[in-house]
Amino acid sequence: MAIHIALAKGRIHKAVMKYLQESGYEFPTYSEDSRKLIFEDSKSMLKVTLVKSPDVAVYVERGAADVGIVGEDVLVEEASGAAVYEVLDLGIGRCRMAVAGIAGKKVDMTRRITIGTKYPRIARQYFEQNHHSVDIIKLNGSVELAPLVGLSDVIVDIVETGNTLKANGLEVLQYFMDFSARMICNPVSFKIKYSEIQQLMKVIQQKELEV
Ligand SMILES: Nc1ncnc2c1ncn2[C@@H]1O[C@H](COP(=O)(O)OP(=O)(O)OP(=O)(O)O)[C@@H](O)[C@H]1O
Ligand SMILES: O=P(O)(O)OC[C@H]1O[C@H](OP(=O)(O)OP(=O)(O)O)[C@H](O)[C@@H]1O
User: For 59-101, how does the pLDDT look when each residue is reduced to its tens digit (9 = 90+)?
Assistant: First the structure.
């Protein structure tokens, strides 16, 4: 039985597709820059769909995909309570959630501060736990701009190399969570396609993926 994988578009899908191809799966119609969203391998063992990160768990929970591969940051932020199994840490897409601000500029945490972020739920939880009152501004990307143009005091965002912060004159004030890409699985698929899913996990675990 073929397995349907919902892959989070972006870094993760590029790394996983590259790896599947290197592991012997051929996807005749796949190329990184294609606009196509569904790809099947030549032996009809895998069907891959490219899905926006926050939607991966929706596809898997509803059985529209058997498994999904997505960043843990997205799973935590969406906190959908989706009835899916988390079956594998792929060890790729490693990054850390951080509070960052303008380098060298002190932030007065005793007053109400404004946070720019793609992760409003994670940011709110972090500051509430630390008893800070905050205004959260939800952004959809290029979050580093927010403090530079006076939109927010600080940002909450993922950091990997730190190059984006550095290039924009920002610095980490506090790291507070670690993330990596995860494989999730529909519980019914996990039973019905057990051996196929185990085989896929084995293939993916065989090599250190790079993202
Ligand atoms: N700089 C990074 N280094 C490593 N992993 C990252 C980095 N940025 C994001 N990730 C991980 O890869 C996942 C996909 O991120 P990516 O930015 O490629 O996708 P995206 O769909 O374009 O996201 P967005 O639309 O929010 O920019 C993230 O959810 C996170 O888990
Ligand atoms: O620490 P670094 O290695 O520099 O990586 C961190 C950057 O990567 C992500 O952005 P992304 O590339 O997804 O762009 P975005 O601003 O459109 O979200 C993240 O939001 C940071 O901006």
Answer: 999 999 999 999 999 999 997 777 999 999 999 999 999 999 9
Domain enclosing residue 46, as ranges: 3-93+180-205
pLDDT in tens, 126-138: 999 988 889 999 9
Q: What is the mean pLDDT of residues 15-26?
A: 94
Q: Note whether residue 15 is domain-resident.
A: yes
Best mutation site among 74, 95, 97, 117 for ligand 1 pocket (most ligand atoms within 8 Å of CB): 95
Question: How many whole angstroms from 83 Cα to the centroid of ligand 1?
Answer: 23
Sheet of strand 38-40, all strands in order from the earlier edge strand to the far edge: 38-40, 46-51, 3-8, 67-71, 181-185, 85-89
Instruction: Quote the ligand 2 centre to 27 CA distance (angstroms).
Output: 28
Whether ligand 1 lies within 6 angstroms of the CB of 73 is answered as yes
Residue 200 belongs to a domain: yes
The domain tally of the chain equals: 2
Residue 6 main-chain phi, psi, to 5 deg: -95, 115
